[in-house]
Every structure is written in C-alpha cells, then in structure tokens.
Amino acid sequence: MTETRDADVVVVxxxxxxxxxxxxxxxxxxxxxxxxxTLVGGECPYWGCIPSKMMIxxxxxxxxARRIPGLAGESTVTPDWTPVAKRIREQATDxxxxxxxxxxxxxxxxxxxxxxxxxxxxxxxRVDDQEFTASRALIIxxxxxxxxxxxxxxAGTPYWTNREAIEAETLPxxxxxxGGGSIGVELSQVMARFGVAVTVIEGSDRILSMEEPESSETxxxxxxxxxxxxxxxxxxxxxxxDDGRFTVTLSDGSELTAERLLVATGRAARLKDxxxxxxxxxxxxxxxxxxxxxxxxxKIWGVGDVTGNGAFTHMAMYEADVAVRDILGQGGPxxxxxxxxxxxxxxxxxxxxxxxxxxxxxxGVDILVGHVPLxxxxxxxxxxxxxxxxxxxxxxxxxxxxxxxxxxxxAGGEMLGALSVAVHGEVxxxxxxxxxxxxxxxxxxxxxxxxxxxxxx
Length: 457
Known about the structure:
Helix content is 30%, strand content 26%. By secondary structure, the protein is an alpha/beta fold. The chain has three domains: 3-41 and 98-146 and 268-327, FAD/NAD(P)-binding domain, CATH 3.50.50; 162-265, FAD/NAD(P)-binding domain; 341-451, Enolase-like, domain 1. Strands 1, 2, 3, 4, 5, 6, 16 and 17 form an eight-stranded mixed β-sheet that branches. The protein has a five-stranded antiparallel β-sheet with strand order 18-19-22-21-20, sandwiched between helices.
C-alpha cells in the first residue's frame, strides 16, 4: 500500500539551495516536505566549499611559513596531513553526519524524508512506499554529480572524485589530476604543498580555460613553482590500474603513472531517473532550464547547481531567494546573472565577476580594458614574496560602466567585492574614478586599473 501525504510544497534535494528554499517556505507557514537521498546541506559543507577551504587554509599556512626567509628570519616546515583530516571530520562534517542540518530544517516546521525521489506526475513525488502531493510548488534542487568521462579502462578503477579527496585520511606520494578547472587546480596545489608529486592533464590549451588568459598564466606560474607538472592540449585516452598504481595514456602517445588518479572534469545536473518526463521536462538535459523567476514548468521551480547557472553556494542561495519570493507572491527582482561572482581559491586567489574580455568581444561590445600587475601596486610591493597577481577591468565604452573584472592576488577573492557591486549596480566609470581608495590596500589597485582603461585591439 502507498501512503499519500498532501503538502503545499515538495522540495526534491536539500543541498544549499533546496534547504534554504524549504526552510524559508516552512517558516512562512507553508506545509513543506523536504526530500534528500544523501546529506542535508549537499556538496558544499561535506565535500566542497567548507572542507576544501580548510585544506587550502592549511596549505596556505605552509606556503606562508616557507616565505619567511628574506622577510623575517629562517623557517623549517614539516607538513602533516593528520590535523587537516581531523579538522575536516570533527569541525566541518561531523564525520559526515547531517543531524544538525536535519534538525535545523524540521525545527522550522518542515517534514524531512530520507530517500530517492521520483516525480510521478504534476505535483506528485514518490519515495519508496510514500507519495507526496504538492498543491502549490514542486522545487527541484537535486544538485550536480561529478562527470566521469568515458575514457577506455577508467570504469571500475579506484579513481578519486572531489569526495574521496576530501575524505582522505592519508595522502598518496603521487597523483594525476584529470581536469584543470577550479576544483582540479585547487586540490592540486593543496596536495603539492603536503608533499604529493602532482601532474595535471587539461584538454584545453590552458588551465582555468573559462577565465581570462592572464588568470591561466598566473595559476600556471604559481603551480609550476610548486613543482606541479601541467600538460595542456592533451587528453587521457586509456587508464589502467595494477599493483596499486594508475597508468594513464595520453592522446600524444605518452604515459604517466601515479598512485592516485583524481577525476575533476566537470559536473552535470542530477536529472536522470527523476521522472522529469512525467511533467514535460527533458531528463536527458545536462541542466534544468529555468526562467528569471526560477520557474522550470507549471508550478515547478529549479534552484542551485541543477540549473547550470554556476556551481556555487552563493548562486544556490541567490536562486532560492528568487524562487521563494515568487512562490510566496512577494515580487521583487528576478534572477540577474550579469554580475555572477566566482573565486578560484588557489594561491594567489583568482576572483572574477561578469564577462571576460573574450566574452565581451564575442557579444560585439565596444570595450575598454584596464590592466595592472599586482606587484606594481604599493601593497603588492610591500607584500613581497607571494604577491603574484593582477587586476583586469572590462568596461562598456558606450554605456561607461564596468561589465567584468578579475582580481588575482593574495586577497583576490576579497578584492572582488567592490567589482561585484560596480558591475551589478552599473556604477558609472566617472563615479568609480572619483572614489577614494584606501592606501595602501590591495583594492587601491582598482583605482590604478580604472585609470588604465583604454581601447585594446
């Protein structure tokens, strides 16, 4: 027998976006059922943002200690992964237990269901022998999963994704990383700082290929200094695993061997076997298509990574807010992705917002470009070792506003704040140029980059 339960809202997936939407709607007095098949909170607190940044913080501490010679004396550093793994287990993930998160949701009045959901028709969702009907809204927030490329021999081997890397209690001596995007380069640098010999394989002609070329150059220089080997323009064609070691054959015929293989080749929405076809949606799509109110269909909303608008916690929270306001009839602005911020937490950090120079040109925008190397700024000079980076601004010459920018350096992610406000608020260039930038800060370099804005061919 199937048990049927009525609700105002059913939320499928309680990652960052789903939990935010479900909790707020429950607090608003609606009857909300939240369904999650793994851990409430999703990728970010357990295998993504939080634990990975703990790892990065530890690696950065080692790097700073190694920069003491020439600045403040001498130093000897001995890396130890044990306290890092312990901190992740005890402070970040509660040993991968989501009781606190579940209690947080139910404490707001929500009804929690653990299990895999299947949509069986408009407003109807089944979990095992339970069926829930949503009279007001169905929210799809199933997140993404690591994309595993169809490389010959890869399936069945004990390769790592970001999850296994985060859960590692001990580190290998050698590691091959497939993918030179943000996840790949962040984890590569961390592992290298703890003594792992890392090799990165990237099919594009540069790592961080979606960002500015200067970002790729900065990251490549930083990783190379840490003895990370980077192969670009080649792809893995065959993988084998024998006697505790991986062998990867590349498209140029060369072979690489390592103890571990980390696959970081992108992510795709969890839509398969969800039953989307029963509500007129495409289950084979890579991401769930939504409008500016996060509507994916009649009484259906999508929020978070599943929408493909950026696999970031801040984007999931942003989209959840738009969807909640729409469901409650509160109005307000719809989703606006012109000033989408993103940070690659390497050392130096690489922050970016809005469009790149290439994207602006491809859109036919008449642009001005301002570029300043960070070591040439006062704070960059003062900082000394570890001051690599730059500031790059993209402006619409006709409208006289910034439409994109990148801030790379020791505080690249923090410098991004002013640019995010400028791009989102379409602050006139004249206003930005007349701004008083505190001296000597890293963000004062934004004033220098604004002065450098000029046509570029």
